[in-house]
Each structure stands twice: as structure tokens, then as C-alpha cells.
Amino acid sequence: xxxxxxxxxxxxxxxxxxxxxxxxxxxxxxxxxxxxxxxxxxxxxxxxxxxxxxxxxxxxxxxxxxxxxxxxxxxxxxxxxxxxxxxxxxxxxxxxxxxxxxxxxxxxxxxxxxxxxxxxxxxxxxxxxxxxxxxxxxxxxxxxxxxxxxxxxxxxxxxxxxxxxxxxxxxxxxxxxxxxxxxxxxxxxxxxxxxxxxxxxxxxxxxxxxxxxxxxxxxxxxxxxxxxxxxxxxxxxxxxxxxxxxxxxxxxxxxxxxxxx
Amino acid sequence: xxxxxxxxxxxxxxxxxxxxxxxxxxxxxxxxxxxxxxxxxxxxxxxxxxxxxxxxxxxxxxxxxxxxxxxxxxxxxxxxxxxxxxxxxxxxxxxxxxxxxxxxxxxxxxxxxxxxxxxxxxxxxxxxxxxxxxxxxxxxxxxxxxxxxxxxxxxxxxxxxxxxxxxxxxxxxxxxxxxxxxxxxxxxxxxxxxxxxxxxxxxxxxxxxxxxxxxxxxxxxxxxxxxxxxxxxxxxxxxxxxxxxxxxxxxxxxxxxxxxx
Lengths: 261, 261
Description:
The structure is a homodimer.
Chain A: E1 5-12, H1 14-17, H2 20-32, E2 36-41, H3 44-53, E3 59-61, E4 64-66, H4 69-93, E5 98-101, E6 109-113, E7 125-130, H5 132-140, E8 144-147, E9 150-152, E10 158-160, H6 163-174, E11 178-185, E12 204-205, H7 207-215, H8 223-235, E13 240-244, H9 247-250, E14 257-259
């Protein structure tokens, strides 16, 4: 067998980012994770707040933001500027040698503007290509990449891209050269049988159970693209996927959902 | 003598950034410059516009922005987000493998919050240390760094930093390992004898002439820190400094000011 080094990819969402003390605790825990690692962050609420303060009205369809030119400007400012650079500065304070990236930087994540037959999503990108060799070089030299959810089309256009998708596309691409564990952190302890009951964590989720829960409508809208991403990533070579509260990173015995094919 | 490779450091200001077609032309010209290079950008007017749109009133003392917590948030969003990522995306479209950086990324530029006896500049940083080894590795592997004027204190705090100073501190640090030419691009063809007459370019400026023109008040406020930076950089090992319109980068015969000790 090959002797690939382990790589942890960790995706955090708006709930951690919007809570300064929670974020600070998470970044301290993240800094203590041994070995190669990548952080991917979203940041939905903060962008919405900034958009409102300059008079824009955010539009969503099926949980996806419609990104017109003004909204793209806001998400680039908030995700790639405010959130990304504050996370990097805090990681540096924790002696983690982080570099913040959008997909445009080093052409690390190239995407294509979404061309949907019915809905015009605006400046939204679907990932086409990850620059694996450059990422591998950076990671192997001890850099901890911190990705915001902005990509580009290599023709000069920045594009808003789903952060879960970025995490899974990075995981798929890098599984060629690393043994990748993908961790989706959110406010819940895992995927729940009953959304109202935090003690109802599904500890092992596979495709059969997923199909069953979808048909029973026990799994609802926001979780569907997340789990689709997971099964897609596993089928393309990602070693292991975990979904849960970020405390699962610090305490490996903490309850969470493991996804398997 | 050592066999150091040439490195061009080019600083552009708000006048180019605020004019989309001028910026696009500049980035195309910049992409054609042979050899190793770094771009440093300011972006004052754009930050002021964004600050006003969310109801902040920008304050300036002696041409330097007073940066309170809200204004820091705006400059981080605009400089490190909006401007930096748009420049990087355009350079990538020109097949230049740019990566955008703040000083926090890779701990590339560490600074100290300014402690002034009279004026509280707020979250403004004075450069203390450049991470020369990491920058040298990146540049030597073909990356073109694009720096915005944001640094950090390595304790988690981002700091607003003068872009001219960033350019000169990078030039000084990198002159240990490269033969550095520092180019300050602005809207004029060079340093002028008569600020109202664009044909009055001083083609060669040295310390003696600078002292004379300062005493005659022919050189005014904004130009003084710029020239102070230049003489400081030359005294610390930078090979060559040019001040002029960015067309001097494309046409080496174009009139400009050369600074020498």
C-alpha cells in the first residue's frame, strides 16, 4: 500500500464564526490538531448583516444565496477579507502558520459560473479544478491553508461558492496524495433522527439509511446537499467523513456522525 | 560579488485602483514584466466610500487615516477582500500566478500597534519584521505575491499599515536575497519641481536636492513620507528606486524620477 500522510480538512460554518468566544476556542483547539490540516470557513450571517447595512436585500433560493454583482462584492469583502484575515491572525497568534486563500490565489480552486436552466444564481461558481500540486507543496512545507468560499473562473471573475462543496472538492483532490479525513463542524452533535432532539445522533450513516431517512423526510433541506457532498466525496477516494460539533476535534470520544458508503 | 536574481517590487495607489480600465491595463502590463516581482496596493478612496455607505466618518491626520475598530473592519474588508482578490483574479486571467497576502498570512509582515505620545492613530501598525525565508521560497517557486496594506501583531490583531511603507520594508528585507528595484507608481510622471506642471519632472533626486526642496517647501506633505521611505530603503540595501506613472514599467524610456543616495 502507499504511504500517504494523513490530512484533516475541517469545515466550520456561520454559527462558530458569529460567536467570537466560540471561534477563539475553536481556533485554539484547531491549532492543537497534529499533522497536516486545512480549514474551510463559510460566513453567511456576517455577509447578510453587512449587505443590509449598505442597503442590499439578500435573496435565497433553496438555501442558496442569489449573488448579484453588489452581493458578490459584499461576500468577497466579508469572506475573503474580514473573516478570513481575522481567522488567519488568530491562528498565527496560536503559532499555526496559516495562509488565507480564495480559489483565485495561486489558481487553487477554479470554478465555472453556474448555468442553471431556470434559476439565475448570479455570480455563483461550481468547482471544476483544484490545483493539487501547489496545495501539496504548501501543505508539505508546513503551511496551514485557510479557505474562504470564494473561487474564480480564471477569466478574471470571482465567484461565490458553497463552503461545504469547497471542503469536499479539496478533500477529493487531495485524497490522491494524502489520507484525508473530512470534518464538517456545525452547531449540532451530529446528524439527528429527530431535529428537535440533540440526543438522537445517528452515529453511523450509510447510503441505505440516508435513502430511507430522505424518503421519510426525517432529513430536511439544509442537510441534503451536505450529505450528498459526503457520499460523493467518499465514492471519489476520501478516507473518512465526520459530522458533528467542533468539540469532536478535541475529544475523539465525543459523539458525532461517521459517514460511510 | 553575489549572484542575486533581480526582483521588481511595484507599489500602486488608489488612483489606479479606482479606475477599472486603468487597473486592467496596468495588470496586463504588470503581467508582462519578466522575472520575479511583487505587487503592493493601497486603496484609500474605495475604503472611504464603503465606510461612508455604512455611516462611518473617516478621520485623517497628516494624510494618515485614524483607524478605529469599525474603520479597521472596513479597510480589512476592502483592502484584503475586495481589492486584493479582484487584482489576483485579473492577474490569474493574465496567466500570472498571483497569491494575495496580508501581513498575517504566513506571518509575512509582523508589525506593532503605533504608540504615539500625542495622537491615537488607533489600529495602525508599524512594520517590525518581514518573513524573508517564506517569501523567498514562494517567489523562487514562481508565485507573484500581491500585498494589501494590512499587517498583524502576531497576537491576533490586524493592523492598518501604510502601503508605501510596506513596499519599502519588503524591498529592504528582500534586498538581502534579491537585487531589488522598487517602483512607486502614481498619477504623476514623477516627483515635480512645480506640483502644477507635469513637465517639471525631477529626473534624478538625491538627498542634497531633497533637503533643498523641502526647505523651499517645493515638496509638500504627501510626498515627504514617500521620499523618506525611499532614502531609508536605499540606505538599507535596496538597489534602485523609481517614482512615476505606471507606464514607466512598460516603456523604460518614459520619463520618471530615479532616487539615489
